[in-house]
Amino acid sequence: MHIETPKKKVAKSDKQLFEFLTDIKNFEELMPENIDKFEVLDEKTFKFALKGMPEIVLRLKDQYPHEKVVLGAASDKLPFTLTANITPLGDAESEVGLSFEGEFNAMMAMMIKGPITNFMETLSSNM
Q: Which of 44, 69, 109, 115 would staple 84 via disulfide (CB 3.0–4.6 Å)?
């Protein structure tokens, strides 16, 4: 299953945005209002829960300085990645697009597509 958000302009340079996204405690600022729990587990891992949803543990998997940050599920039960692609637009502005990639059965994909799309759009808007 592949989901992508429209690219969004951010009033930060590509370097600033990259540094913000690789410091995982900053993800608490990006979370939707209906967050039920947010906990940093270590410098690369955090878990969160939205009201009515199970807890999700995300780990910083890959980083390509100033252009890409890849988070992935810490559990192999539901393997997926959430990638932020950063494009510089100037000294104090950049563009970010989020993409989600996961392997789910058809039933699971149908159930989670809407909530994941809304979650990604919120993360993008809160940047």
A: 69
**Domain coordinates in residue numbering, the chain:** 2-126
- Predicted confidence at residue 19, as pLDDT, reads 97
What is the CATH code of the structural domain delimited by 2-126? Answer: 3.30.530.20
Q: Which two tokens stand for residue 94?
A: 């950049």
- Percent of the chain at pLDDT exceeding 70: 100
CA-wise closest residue to 57 among 32, 30, 24, 26:
24
Tens digits of per-residue pLDDT, 34-62?
899 999 999 999 999 988 778 899 999 99
Spatial separation of the C-alpha atoms in residues 54 and 119, rounded to whole Å: 14
Can you list the positions of beta strands (E) in the chain?
A: 2-4, 8-10, 35-42, 45-50, 56-64, 68-73, 80-88, 94-102
- Which tokens go with 46? 């955090």
